[in-house]
Amino acid sequence: MQDDPQHLQWYADQSLHTNEVFKHYIGSLRQRFNQTGGVHILQSMNGCEWDDETGEVNGFIQYGYDGEDFIALDLQKLTWITAKPQAVIIKLRWDAEKTRLEHNKELFIHKCPELLKNYLQYGRSFLQTAVLPSVSLLQKTPSSPVSCHATGFYPDRAVMFWRKDGEELHEGVEIGEILPNNDGTFQLSVNLNVSSVTPEDWRRYECVFQLSDVENNSVNTLNKTVIRTNESKRNSGNSFSLLIQWILM
Questions:
Q1: Which residue spans of the chain are classified as CATH 3.30.500.10?
Q2: Which residues have C-beta within 8 Å of that of residue 100, sequence separation ≥ 6?
Q3: In the 8-state DSSP scheme, what is residue 145?
């Protein structure tokens, strides 16, 4: 904002314009839904995604009304997609506005990625810094698979696998999908079936986590002494329950 004060003014102008437009939209929508009172919410989500490895760009413009999808623009086909019958008449009108469609395509397929890349340059020190995860070995019961769980890593370009004697395992292994955390980091789990593993062979197994563009891997040896189980949780729960009962008495 210091380098480009007009950028802040642009956001302020956009917000004021959206405020006025939404007042008109929400009044029209209340009529279409036959709503005479109450609080109603109109939301829009506009933006773009850029993959710095493939160069692929995706833009999106979508509206929601009272917490449900209402209408969205397909920027490739330049046509609006309706999610509610009440949106059909709006689709027909907006599909006919060719100049507006082309403007949206230019804004979210070309200008938005340029702005995104500019933001990444400003925030490179923290936005593009790789963050290694906290890795734990988890097991529900002694007969359950052992889960190697990594959480808190960034970005989401990561792989994790089990290996035995240095060789990657494929049988008896279940790989989960990368999931987002609330703080913008990610988590991933890989399960290993240990029902056929003898106690003396446990240390031959390792869980390996690899994060893109980071040379050092996180390697955790299969070790019963470091596995976290539900047994300790149940014991803690019983103690807590007894403490509450004692206090209430």
A1: 5-126
A2: 94
A3: P
Are the C-beta atoms of 138 and 146 separated by less than 8 Å?
yes
Q: What share of the chain is helix, strand, coil (3-state, %, to 5)?
A: 40, 30, 30
Strand partners, 228: 138
134-229 CATH: 2.60.40.10
Q: What is the DSSP string of 191-224?
A: EE--TT--GGGGGGEEEEEEETT--PPEEEE--G
Tens of each residue's pLDDT in the chain, 249 residues: 777 888 888 889 989 999 999 999 999 999 999 998 899 999 999 999 998 878 899 999 999 999 999 999 999 999 999 999 999 999 999 999 999 999 999 999 999 999 899 888 888 777 777 888 999 999 998 889 999 999 999 888 899 999 999 999 999 999 999 999 998 899 999 999 998 888 889 999 999 999 987 888 899 999 988 998 866 555 444 444 344 343 333
Given CATH 1.50.10.10, say whether it is the number of domain 5-126: no
50 contacts 113 by C-beta, under 8 angstroms:
yes
User: What DSSP state is assigned to residue 109?
Assistant: I
pTM: 0.58
What letters, b where the CB count within 10 A reaches 16 and e where it falls short, cover 164-195?
eeeeebeeebeeeebeeeeeebbbbbbbbebe
Instruction: Name the amino acid, one letter, at 71.
Output: I
CATH 2.60.40.10 in the chain is located at 134-229
